[in-house]
Sequence to fold (102 residues):
Amino acid sequence: QCPILIDVRTLSEWNAGHASCAERIPVQDDRSRIAEVLTLADGDASYPVVVYCRSGARAGSAATVLSNAGFTDVTNGGGWVYPAGNDAVLEEMCTCTTPCTP
Fold:
């Protein structure tokens, strides 16, 4: 099952490049948009979710918020740029047909 990718970066960071299948939910909005994530997961809080940012720090915060809201399969995907090449790993998740992990 391919994960939902959530980019928690700012609009300017998003505009500089992002995974083609990612949803943009800035980390400062994550608490108010949990219902939106649940909708993306077809109402299934066990659906895999991968959050990422520039370096992984904001993604870690967002992962904690989602886990505390009852999501059971949340992964910090790290950064779009760091570690080097992680953008390719995240983009690959957009086309996966089997479980993908960062």
Q: What stands out?
A: The longest strand covers residues 74-79. The two ends are 14 Å apart (CA to CA).
